[in-house]
């Protein structure tokens, strides 16, 4: 009788690690002792209801918010005290909630801003990559970003982040304000970015949609991680709805 082959699958090397991070806004505690990690090339989603601490987690990773306790490690280095530009230069990029484009600048100018820390490097290959993902942006390259539709603005925000050639892409509510058809398209593009080798940490309220493309997930409730596991485990978990709704 033949024996089953052993599982030789190895987890990817850790790219990002939050180690027991506690974060405050003034005297209000937002995150309490959270620990999570994202492996190189992984797609991980961070779920939770409103005011659960999801966006603060991303701001802590990017360096906008400094933790009161704990550490942020990226690529094996302790970056807890690093400024935002240092982290971006090392390979972290963000697609912020509500896109936050410069509306009076053209699509191309907004994309160029994503590469500003790369100095005088040629950007032809980067524009080609972004336009391959978002052909509409090539058509709209000379149009003011503020005149685009919500879906097109989301494409610009994602393209701008990719122009920095990130190793880790942070995404804050990528489906917010989009029609159901555009949500489907948006998540397919996120999946394509992930498949290309970029690690993604995605904050999203649409738990089911996020877990259909993610490798793993964490659930936050009032600043504490209350559930974690593979995407398949979370989708099958009876605890997900209770944890997600804070009940």
Distance N to C terminus: 49 Å
Oligomer: single chain
Structural class: alpha/beta
User: What is the total number of structural domains?
Assistant: 1
- Beta strand %: 25-35%
Order of helices and strands: EEEHEEHEHHHHEHEHEEHH
Q: How much is the average pLDDT?
A: 89
Looking at the structure, the CATH topology is Rossmann fold
Task: Say which CATH homologous superfamily is assigned.
Answer: P-loop containing nucleotide triphosphate hydrolases
Q: Tally the beta strands.
A: 10
The largest sheet has its strands arranged as 6-7-8-3-9-10
User: What is the 3D form?
Assistant: globular
Helix content: 25-40%
CATH C-level: Alpha Beta
Annotated CATH architecture: 3-Layer(aba) Sandwich
Largest sheet: 6 strands, mixed
Q: What radius of gyration results from the CA coordinates?
A: 18 Å
Low-confidence stretches: 1-7
Overall description:
- Helix content is 35%, strand content 26%.
- It is an alpha/beta fold and 247 residues long.
- Helix 3 (107-113) packs parallel to helix 6 (150-162).
Properties at a glance:
six-stranded mixed sheet, 247 residues, alpha/beta, four-stranded antiparallel sheet, disordered N terminus, Rossmann fold
In short:
This protein is α/β, with parallel strands linked by helices and 247 residues long. It has helices at residues 54-62, 84-90, 107-113, 124-133, 135-139, 150-162, 180-195, 207-213, 231-236, 239-245; strands at 14-25, 28-39, 43-47, 69-74, 77-78, 92-95, 168-172, 199-203, 216-221, 224-230.
Describe how the helices and strands are arranged.
Layout: E1 14-25, E2 28-39, E3 43-47, H1 54-62, E4 69-74, E5 77-78, H2 84-90, E6 92-95, H3 107-113, H4 124-133, H5 135-139, H6 150-162, E7 168-172, H7 180-195, E8 199-203, H8 207-213, E9 216-221, E10 224-230, H9 231-236, H10 239-245
Parallel strand pairs: 3-8, 3-9, 6-7, 7-8
Antiparallel strand pairs: 1-2, 1-4, 4-5, 9-10
Helix pairs in contact: 3-6
């Amino acid at each position: 009788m033949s024996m089953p082959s052993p599982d030789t699958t190895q987890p990817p090397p850790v790219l990002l690690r939050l180690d027991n991070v506690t974060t405050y806004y003034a005297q209000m505690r937002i995150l309490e002792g959270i620990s999570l990690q994202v492996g190189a090339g992984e797609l991980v989603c961070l779920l939770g209801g409103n005011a659960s601490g999801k966006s603060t987690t991303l701001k802590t990773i990017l360096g906008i918010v400094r933790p009161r306790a704990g550490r942020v490690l990226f690529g094996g280095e302790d970056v807890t005290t690093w400024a935002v530009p240092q982290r971006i230069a090392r390979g972290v990029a963000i697609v912020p909630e509500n896109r936050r484009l410069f509306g009076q600048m053209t699509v191309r100018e907004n994309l160029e801003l994503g590469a500003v820390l790369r100095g005088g490097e040629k950007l032809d290959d980067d524009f080609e990559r972004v336009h391959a993902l978002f052909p509409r942006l090539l058509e709209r390259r000379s149009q003011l970003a503020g005149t685009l539709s919500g879906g097109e603005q989301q494409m610009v925000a994602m393209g701008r982040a990719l122009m920095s050639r990130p190793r880790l892409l942070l995404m804050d509510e990528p489906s917010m304000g989009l029609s159901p058809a555009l949500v489907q398209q948006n998540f397919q593009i996120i999946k394509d970015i992930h498949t290309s080798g970029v690690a993604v940490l995605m904050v999203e309220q649409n738990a089911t949609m996020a877990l259909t493309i993610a490798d793993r997930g964490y659930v936050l409730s009032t600043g504490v991680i209350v559930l974690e596991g593979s995407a398949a485990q979370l989708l099958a978990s009876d605890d997900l709805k209770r944890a997600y709704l804070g009940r």
